[in-house]
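From: lab user (bench 3)
To: helpdesk
Subject: output format question, protein + protoporphyrin IX containing FE

Hello, I'm new to running complex predictions and I'm not sure whether the block I got back is the full result or only part of it. Here's what I submitted:
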Amino acid sequence: MTETQSQSQWERVGGAPAVKAVLDRFYEGVLGEPQLAGFFENVEVENIKPHLAEVLSVVLGGPGLSPDVDLATYLTDAHARLGVSESDYALTGKVLLDTLAEFDVPDDIVETITGALAFVQPFVVAA
Ligand code: HEM
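Helpdesk reply: Thanks, we reran it on our side. This is the complete output you should expect:
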C-alpha cells in the first residue's frame, strides 16, 4: 500500500495511543532493572514517562522534537551529569527492543530503532 510509505514509522505503529501502551511496558521494564531504576530514583514519577516518550519519539521520528533542535547538543546536555555507562545504555536498549517484540512491531521499524539507538549512544553515554 503506497499510503504506508508516506506515513512515518511513528504513525505506522499507531501513533500516540500505541506508543502509550508500549511506554507503560517500557516503564515497567526500566524500573524493573535495578541497574537502571537508580537513575530515576530522584526523578519525579511523572517525568519518567515523558522521558521514555522522548526516547521513543527520537528513535521513531515522532512529533516530539522540533526539527530546529540540535539532537546532539540536546541529548548531551540532558545526560551530561548522569554518568550513563555503555552497559546502562545497552540494557535500556534491550528493554526497549524486548518491549517492541512483545508488541509485534514490524522488522523494518525495529531496524530503524536499532540504528537510532547506535546513532544517539555517544550523546547519552558519559565520555
Ligand atoms: C535513546 C536514548 C535516550 C534518549 C533519546 C533520551 C532522551 C532524553 C531527553 C530528551 C532528556 C531530557 C528531558 C528533559 O529535559 O525534559 C533526558 C533526560 C534524562 N535521561 Fe535520557 N535518553 C536516553 C537514554 C537514557 C538512558 C540510557 C538513561 C539511564 C539509564 C537515561 C536517563 C535520563 C535521566 C535520569 C534524565 C533526567 C530526567 C529528569 O531529570 O527529569 N536516558 N533523556
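A quick orientation on your result: Residues 10-124 form a domain with the Globin-like fold (CATH 1.10.490.10). Let us know if anything else is unclear.
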